[in-house]
Amino acid sequence: VHHSLKKMIDNLGKKEDEKVIEESIEDALRKYEGLIEIKREELESILKSFLDFIRKENFEDIIAEINLENLNLGLTGSVDALSFKGEEIIPIEIKHASYRGRIKKEHLLQAVGESLLVEKYFRKKVGNFIIFYSQTSSFVKVEMKSSLIRQFLKLKSLIGKIYSSNRIPPKSRLPNFRERICKGCHVRKACDNIEYTRRYFRL
Question: Would you give the DSSP letter of residue 58?
Answer without folding.
Answer: T
